[in-house]
Write the structure tokens for this entry.
Amino acid sequence: MPRTVLIGAPIDSGQRRPGCLMGPAAYRVAGLAQAISDLGHGVSDWGDVTLPDLTDATCPNPAVHSLPETLGWTEILTDRVDDALSEGAMPIVLGGDHSLALGSVAGAAAHAKRSGRPLFLLWLDAHSDFHTPMTTTSGNLHGTPVAYIAGREGFEAFPPFPAPIPADRICLYGIRSVDPAEHAALLDHDIAINDMRVLDEHGIVKPLRDFLARVRDAGGMLHVSLDVDFLDPTIAPAVGTTVPGGTTFREAHLVMELLHESGLVTSLDLVELNPFLDDRGMTARLMVDLVGSLMGKKVFDRPTRSK
């Protein structure tokens, strides 16, 4: 696995509940860099990105808020992720709300396009995030990245996505909260929805292994976007969009171990951690532990914790 680069994205503008901007600091305090280096991987911390000068931008949908800020974050994160991949590193973007994926995946797509390789997306999330700025009723742009990545219309204020990802290269996994408009659009684009019903019926492993086989056969790059609400809120309370019925501790670690064994992951987002809502850092520590599994830590390596 290549060396990792940590990129802090203290972004709160994609939704309305304050706190996600503290996410990058919480990951650092929880020992993310040390956890990665302890497994023998090189790790560099590029610090937090900062907003560039904002440009005026408006959206015909009056519900949309913080559009200039979101465009600024998208611009800077696109460049930073592309830079890390161009250096042969694996960028890990520390969020911040999920609107950061508008930029992080764009950066990965730009690099993949220049490299002549297809980019695949694994979206580990309770939500499909398939609204556009024109269809969102909340106005929260953290609910739009997958639509942008897939090339949906309605993103005229944004830079054109470098190379929209076809439906068969997108895997929505762990989904359990999709509104009717998003569901209809997903069906129209034929994107596979591996919701919790699918995972309950077929198990955690098969849908993921099938997707990873497609990545491998295509010689593809794989961007993984991990939302805290992929996890059940009983083990990961530090998120403003809790949805019951998420993955368990064991299931989440199994997903990460399978990703490690595949050797296919080239970039990673950690999003929607709101430390203000956490219980003594338990969610931040769990997310760091999951990154450990992605980097090669095995379940039987875990020490017993004192009560």
